[in-house]
Specification:
By secondary structure, this protein is mainly α. 68% of the residues lie in helices and 3% in strands. Strands 1-2 form a two-stranded antiparallel ribbon. The radius of gyration is 22 Å and the shape is elongated.
């Protein structure tokens, strides 16, 4: 099937009232049409101007909404032709915005990381090369330097864990981490902001990272898995121990950024 919807096909939609996230509401309305197969695989979406008029929103809002559908794998652009509904495949991950900006959500993301990072560390211990070990050492040195300079170390922390994943040499595991990268980075931003508030937290993180690296260097997969799992267990404990004022102010704001990156 490869059809173009007639101009009046979307008149059943109601214009949207002003909202902080109009693009999400437009994307949700279009996604509902796709999931109900009223917009079927192969159908071309109406133009930006047509959707803008239909929803009574700006073309920028429509563009952001369509971009979200692209990131979810629901539509695909065809150069010079338009944007088309993709054939159904594996359902995309969907996250409830209100639930995701909670303390519980950050803990749950750390639980996801625990499962992934433990296996990454074990495989890295088995498969790392001397070049891998050099990159791992460089990444942890960059993290220490960023923190010493007064930074939050988020990007360097993510780069450190990515160097471990590269050493694991499992493309499917890498793809999974890439798929979750924005959410993982958002959760890391929250945990590191909390850890930076207390020297004992920051010192514990440095020691946990070093234990992971030492196990990988020694080629001890079991110890590497245990060290990585314990690191995430401790990250969860540190979030649970966070000053309530941190979560009410900084923590929630940082967690909200996690969802803005979807």
């Amino acid at each position: 099937m490869n059809s173009t919807l007639p101009a009046g096909a979307l008149t059943r939609f109601q214009s949207l009232e002003p909202s902080a996230r109009l693009s999400d509401r437009v994307a949700d309305a279009l996604a509902a049409e796709i999931q109900a197969e009223r917009l079927a695989p192969g159908d071309r979406l109406p133009t930006e101007s047509a959707l803008s008029a239909q929803f009574s929103v700006s073309r920028t809002v429509v563009r952001e909404a369509v971009s979200r559908l692209k990131s979810l794998g629901m539509v695909e652009p065809r150069q010079g032709s338009g944007v088309y509904v993709r054939a159904a495949g594996i359902p995309p991950l969907a996250f409830d915005v209100q639930r995701a900006v909670s303390k519980e959500a950050v803990v749950q993301m750390a639980e996801v990381r625990r499962a992934l990072e433990a296996e990454v560390a074990a495989l890295a211990a088995q498969r790392r090369t001397q070049a891998d070990l050099k990159r791992i050492r460089q990444s942890i040195a960059a993290l220490d330097a960023a923190v010493a300079a007064g930074g939050d170390g988020v990007l360097q922390d993510v780069a450190f864990h990515r160097s471990l994943a590269d050493a694991a040499r499992n493309p499917f595991l890498l793809d999974t981490l890439h798929y979750l990268s924005r959410l993982l980075q958002g959760a890391t931003r929250v945990t590191r902001a909390n850890e930076a508030r207390r020297e004992d937290f920051a010192r514990a993180v440095r020691n946990e990272h070093r234990r992971i690296v030492e196990a990988i260097e020694s080629g001890d997969a079991a110890r590497a898995r245990q060290a990585a799992s314990r690191h995430m267990d401790n990250a969860i404990a540190r979030i649970e121990q966070a000053d309530p004022a941190f979560w009410q102010l900084e923590g929630t704001a940082l967690a909200r950024e996690l969802m803005r990156q979807r």
